[in-house]
Amino acid sequence: MTGAARDAGAGTPVARPDVVGLLAALEARGWTLATAESLTGGLLSATIVDVPGASRVLRGAVVAYATDVKRSVLGVDGDLLAAHGAVHPDVARQMAERVREVLGADVGVATTGVAGPDPQDGQPPGTVFVAASGPRGTQVRRLHLGGERATVRAGTVAAAVDLARAVAEEQPLEDRRGEIRG
Known about the structure:
The protein contains six helices and eight strands, in the order E-E-H-E-H-E-H-H-H-E-E-E-H-E. It is of the alpha/beta class and 182 residues long. Strands 4-3-5-6-7-8 form a six-stranded mixed sheet, sandwiched between helices. The chain has a two-stranded antiparallel ribbon with strand order 1-2. Helix 1 (17-29) runs parallel beside helix 6 (149-168). Mean pLDDT is 90; it is low at 173-177.
């Protein structure tokens, strides 16, 4: 099952209101979206395409699960990755900015972090960074999410959708930078 809710009778996806809102905000501006995903492994883009008409906005997605793919496909700075690993706010920022460029989108959204159960790059499970990049700049959020892998990944998708919508609606950048604990 993707991040969308399922209709109990038919087993078909039911579009999430937050995703519908994101796509509506983008479409109202004539903007497009691209995703770069690590710990969500395609769950973010799958959640987006559960909405009928998503193809009017979504340009594509890059699942850069391995650290070297972040560098080779998205162009994340190799020195940054060597010094800090993939779980870092600047990695999320570069992923969002580069996927925008690589896929020719107006807004890029990225996820990187540790779904668990084991730590990665010195970071405990539930440490996540999401970033969204648009014409007015890039915003990054640090998340501290609890629970099993599926819970961390679902929380990451929700936060990424929220942040991308803030960028699409051009909410002030200074109001959207911070940490979320869940």
